[in-house]
Amino acid sequence: MGKENSAEKALNLIRGRLCDPTSVFRPLSGSSDSNFSKLKFIVSTSITEGCNNSILLLGPRGSGKAAVLDLVVGDLMEEYPDSVTLIRLNGLLHSEDNCAFKEIARQLCMEHHLLFSKMASFDENSQFIIAMLRECGLAHKTIIFVLDEFDMFAQASDLLLYSLLDAMQSVTSQAVVVGISSRLDADQLLEKRVRSRFSHRKILFLPPSREEIDSLLEHLLSLPADSSFPSGYVSQFNEKIKNITSDTRFKDMLKTFLNANSTVNSLLKFIFRAVSSMNLESGLLSLENFKTALSSMQRQPKLEAVRDCSILELYVLVCMRRLEVKEQSSYNFISVMKEYKTIHDSFQTSDYYAQNVCLRAFEHLREREVICYAENRGQSQAVEYRPMKLLISASELHQGMRSHACCPAILLKLLDH
Amino acid sequence: MTREESSKVTRRSTRFSSSVTSDNPEPNPSHPPTVADLTFGEESITLDSLLSSFPGRRSQILDLIRLIGPLDSPALPVILYGDASTGKTSVVLQVFTHLNRPFVYSSCRTCCTPRLLFESILNQLLLHSKCSSNGYASAKRCDKPSDFVNLLKEALSSVVETLNSTKLERKLMGKMVYLIVDHVDLIKEWDKGEMILQFLFSLSSVLKMPQLGIILISGLPPDVYYSNMGYTDPLPVYFPEYSEEELRQIFLKNQVNKKLYSAFLDVALRPFCRVTRRVEELSTSLSSLFRQYCEPLDDLSISPNEDLKRRLYSNLRPHITSCLNEVFRVSGRPHDGDTRGERRQKASYSSEKGDELEILDFHMSTSAKYLLIAAFLASRNPATLDASMFDSTGGMDNRKRKRKASEKSMEKKEMAEQEAVMKGPGSFPLERLLAIFQCIASVGDSSLGEEEDEEGEEEATGYDKESNNMMSDILLQVSSLCDANFMIKSGSCPLEGSIRYRSMVSEDLSLKVARSLSFPLSKYLYRR
């Protein structure tokens, strides 16, 4: 019971670490030339010297841009407790100007303990924001604007960006605008007048190197040697982790995984899955956990869809494939039924069903998005007459049928000829 | 169990067959809802009973439980995907009964706009229920994702506070709340659905609250959600279709006489599995077939021996093929206690397959039937042949001179056939429909007149009365045929200005209708 309790606690601890991005990125940000220190330098100089600044953080999704920014902001809040205000906006939510200004005004009010009225109009909000910028500038307080999904702000409309950047230049303000985007060309999306006011500082977030990953793994998976865990258990656990990470099979697994997706976030998901399947009785991780996690992360949805088909649905797919091979550029349900009939006549299969049954099988395939309508505009036609197309390739169909539980041999033969 | 809790439970438990007896829709105002109502609150079930009630889902259930994790353990978002009726929603709800954690369930099928979805989630978190006292209004009005995020943060923090401070002497509920969103694939059809999907998938990183666990249920695999905005994928759990063995276990679960049913499944399950493996479709066809299987037996509780099994099978065999072709059709005739209906059914099943075509199982007026046939003919025949098909006496004349078919013309014929198949039924203006209708209705009159002389049954006198009123309300009939989807309005030609129609009935249905009127349809149909 005690063993299970400590295993559960260990599991909770590791899962907590994996779900919290800041704790993941802190060890990665230790060195002096990392993105963390660069960003911190830029923002802290603009706080101490009282100047305006703008910067873009770019990198693929899940490479830790927002996490590093959170770390920087957290540190700065500690160092300069009263002179930093943080405003967060997200492109998914606030890409409309009304929403964005309302949200900025709301957050400013919350920070400075003012009453926020939901009925304030757009003009009132924008005047309020500019006034606040001026006041904070005069009082030597810096406002940090964090714009997540920056490319959505750039594409939607430039009013927000323009007014922010313009205010920063004209009014005596101290503001830093940090844009975060997963599109590497986010600054090319800006309009000319906004781009001219934007300083083209960019920090790229690249995938971590092998050494960084190894140190990250060790940091994430080792249990701390404090009093909440029985000491023997901690050393046993950490020993097991060392064994696993130095195993060549594990290294190969990691390499294949990172070849497909090299961001830190996907690595975290992989480890999360492996850790969740930890055997709670023994309380130790094993290589099997990582193997099952890898196989469940590498899914092939179209193959699974074909494997899930019933035999009649496989017949429909094979008929469609044969029509494609015969270079019929477009076909619909009626032509597929004709092909089905010719197959039945020439091979005397036992699976010949009525048209309404086949139509229903057709609908099932369409719901599963294995086939779809070839064009969207033919709404005025009956379902049987609309042209269709296959959404899976021939090799996927082959593979799926071969791994199908009870595919009749005649179908495989028909597919090849 | 408070009444408020039970009304919440009935709302959520429509998916599984637990016997919640209370059916009181109005919450009693003297029992205010508490946070404990976010859990199921009933007797929690053990893991073994959970696993045994879902045959074939053992690995998925264990996977899900492991991903949700022990009590108070932070979790990454999870997506369960699989085909319809593979048990995703019921498994999730039963897992939460077993784990007894507070959760909020919302389905995108019932909440078909973003506003409904957001407000439903907020209502459940704020423990607000719509009743007549507050005018069936939600607690807060919310239709934009930005408002939703703010309100959700407030609601969650208040719920978590209550969870932290309550000293529960009964079962531990933990400090996390789980959000379950069902039928996520339907969001794709919504207005601005892509944005909402992207928002939902990145909800956990936007909110930054580790006390919320997110579980999404989708009918489509995660690869359909890839968009060019990048994609933060939740952890996938796959629910495959059931194999034959698992289907057998599922169907045997609630049967009274397991031996008899398993003997039935031995012969019936395999052919049906070749057509479809979905549980809901199989259960309707298998239940009707089982009734037929048990017909010769007087005592339904015996367990059959080999001899009996063989006899029952030979009795059933001719019905299996006909039933296979009716797999997706739900019979319109009532089954329980109507012996007359059963006898008619027996007669129809034992007769030839061709006879079945004659039975038109819905009623239409005579003029509507003629209109249907006229629309069918107008769609299938090219307009230029109308004059020769329907000459002034109402007779037909489509003898074509036989010419020796050369190879080129055969090829051309094949291409033309293919094109015709691809194009489908043609469209026709209203005037042409009415012209053909008048022609064939007069044919019908004359032929029916002969019938009346010969037979003089009650049906003929009924027709006689109707034939005088057939020409009225034709336009009304046309519009009701359009509503019933037998005809649709296709695009109108901008030069002509009249609306064109297109017939949507299949040849089988029009043959049935023609046969019920004794109309020689095949003589009027143009065959290339």
From TrEMBL, chain A:
GO terms for molecular function: ATP binding; ATP hydrolysis activity; DNA replication origin binding. It is found in: Nucleus. The keyword 4Fe-4S does not apply. Belongs to the ORC4 family. Keywords: ATP-binding, DNA replication, DNA-binding, Nucleotide-binding, Nucleus. It comes from Brassica carinata. Pfam families: AAA, ORC4_C. One of its GO terms (biological process) is DNA replication initiation. Residues 216-400 form the Origin recognition complex subunit 4 C-terminal domain. Component of the origin recognition complex (ORC) that binds origins of replication. DNA-binding is ATP-dependent. The specific DNA sequences that define origins of replication have not been identified yet. ORC is required to assemble the pre-replication complex necessary to initiate DNA replication. This is Origin of replication complex subunit 4.
UniProtKB/TrEMBL annotation, chain B:
Residues 333-345, 406-416 have a biased composition (Basic and acidic residues). GO terms for molecular function: DNA replication origin binding. It comes from Brassica carinata. This is Orc1-like AAA ATPase domain-containing protein. Pfam families: AAA_16 (PF13191), ORC5_C (PF14630), ORC5_lid (PF21639). InterPro entries: AAA_16, ORC5, ORC5_C, ORC5_lid, P-loop_NTPase. It is found in: Nucleus. Residues 364-525 form the Origin recognition complex subunit 5 C-terminal domain. Residues 448-461 have a biased composition (Acidic residues). It comes from the Eukaryota. Its main location: nucleus. Gene3D superfamilies: P-loop containing nucleotide triphosphate hydrolases. GO terms for cellular component: nuclear origin of replication recognition complex. Keywords: ATP-binding, DNA replication, Nucleotide-binding, Nucleus. Residues 1-34, 331-350, 389-422, 446-466 are annotated as: Disordered. Residues 54-204 form the Orc1-like AAA ATPase domain. PANTHER family: ORIGIN RECOGNITION COMPLEX SUBUNIT 5. Residues 261-310 form the ORC5 lid domain. GO terms for biological process: DNA replication initiation. Belongs to the ORC5 family.
